[in-house]
Amino acid sequence: MTQTGNIILDVVIIVIKIVIVLGVNLTIVAYLTLAERRVSAFMQDRLGPNRVGPAGLLQPIADGIKFFTKEEIIPAQSSKLIYLMAPSFVLFPAFLTYAVIPVGPTFSAWGYSFQMEIANLNIGILYILALTSFVVYGVVLAGWSSNSKYPLIGGLRSAAQMISYELPLGLSIIGVLMIVGSLRLSEIVNFQTHLLWGFLPRWNVVLQPLGFLIFLIAAFAESNRLPFDMAEAEPELVGGYHTEYGSMKFASFMLGEYAGMITSAALMTTLFFGGWDFPWVNESALGVWGILLAVIAFSLKTGFFLFLYLWVRWTLPRFRYDQLMRLGWKILLPLALVNIVVTAIVMAFLA
Amino acid sequence: MVTVLLYLFGILAILSALGMVFHRNPVYSALFLVVTFFSLASIYALLGAQFLSIIQVMVYAGAIMVLFVFVIMLLNLRKEVRLPIGKPAQVIFGVIFGLLLFVEGLLIIKSGSISGTLGRYPQAKVNVIGNVEALGNLLFTKYLFPFELASIILLVGMIGAIILGRKKMPKEL
Amino acid sequence: MNVKNVKRVTIKPNIWDLLYIPAIIGGLSITFKHLFKKHITLEYPDEKWFPPPGYRGAIRLNRDELGREKCVACEMCATACPANAISMQGGAAPWDDREKYPIWYKIDMLRCILCGMCEEACPEEAIELTVIYDFADYTRESLIWDKERLLKNYDLTKDGNYYKRQLEENKKR
After folding, report:
1. B18 interface with A at CB cutoff 8 Å
2. C99-149 confidence digits (pLDDT tens)
3. Nearest to A45 among C28, C32, C40 (CB)
4. B77, B99, B129 — which closes off a domain?
5. Chain B partners of A1 at a C-beta cutoff of 8 Å?
6. Is residue B52 included in any domain, yes or no?
């Protein structure tokens, strides 16, 4: 990192990176809420919000103003401190995970080596898993501190669900980690920039299709999205853990959910779909255009997975609770273990 | 800088541990314990053991404490009631042993460094090859037997939990 | 109902079905097709819904060819009205071709259920239901319509272009 030995320059660059990443992601989150409503409307042959600004593009701003000017309501008999803290437990981990996701290859300019992520941790993937496992506190504590029965049930369901699906989520990655041999996300991407048998991009989805499938399902369950949104099942739980929340605190939960979606979409891209790699092109050799191409490839892939989230939401109905648990423990977990064993055997033979 | 942070997180760990013991609401106690785990994880990270610190957060704060909170909420525990202090003998022994433990710890810290020779992986080498590799290598070569033993103990615990938790068959009733 | 005649059909899923993935992909393709289908949303204030003939909307009082109300204050409508929404006071007509006319005539649109019984009952075809559905208002008083208001409805709807004219006004704005 410190080729120049100039600590001030390093700090300045990192601060700029943080500002850019956070700004871009907050904008995406804001427009994801709009995209969600528009895409769902299109899929149901409706139009969706199109009144504020051209084609409804200013809708997130209108929503923001609405949320900020709403009345703050704190339920009587609630545990106020935890009640107020819970939304931030959901929001902050979701945003912190962006720090380790590489959006482009490392490149050198003006005698300085720029990395296209905020922190190139050698345990990057574990860092993300640790942070996402923390989101469950926000949900559980929100449910408990509201002192109301529906949020409590929602919180409990969510806790059980998230713990259950963290296992297949973590285990499904192990296959990838075994092949790549590193927990560093930039190295996982670098591994995938090569070609398989000379023509196929060596993306991990080709090498680990089962692992990807398990990761996809578990990631949907982790982010509490349909078809796994037991925690907020409206018909049964009146909104679940955030029933008693209003105004900006409710918006924080929503922002956290959408930020989590971006995280898992970016993670799927990075782990299984080659990250910033544009197949059959050597980005590092193209200079600035290569960087641009890499960032665009990364954005397109992540955008596709974000769309997949919305797409699946309007296709599949919600699981029943026992079906959810059966899928997690009796199908995904054994499959993930089988995947690891098979990967190990194949690697042992090829070595 | 690192030393200052170390002291900061150390104090935070001690304070939140005390909060965990003294707070009378079980959910708050559990949250204090999470803060303690986080401070410990920060201390590990400051000492250069990133892998250990992340695992600390993932396993203890992310999984085990969530289960604790889950159970506390499921049982709907209310505030603890204060019980009268037991017999004077209990109090005296408790204080004596507590003080002994404290003095023991103090003496070890006072004696300077914990002695011993550096192993195959001193700090410089770990920085080069990375935490995970160093830990993995040691775990699967030198400490393989304790590692396997631990996994067998966990397996036994799991089987025990399944047997205790399983539904009774009609003929056994 | 005879339960014995019910034939129970159980479809045994084969391995392909048990994978669920082909079914999910089929569902995804259906939703994806709908992305590009024509939207059935009517953007209401900008576009208008044109009610079919026979639609029972707001009530009007018809005029004759001289522009006078056709009503002869026979009170058939008020008698027929199941909601008791119609009230009037008849008086000697100032014209030669009839004996009575309504001095005042009121329909409480808050009570009116738009059933059309008044239209059925009227011997003179003086009261009719129109296509107007957008007659919401801000006060209760303004929804008790008098004779002038009901005659105005006739003027608005006699050419059958009520909503077309509204659309043109929208365009001008």
Report:
1. no
2. 888 899 999 999 999 998 998 898 888 888 888 888 888 998 889 998 888
3. C40
4. B77
5. none
6. yes
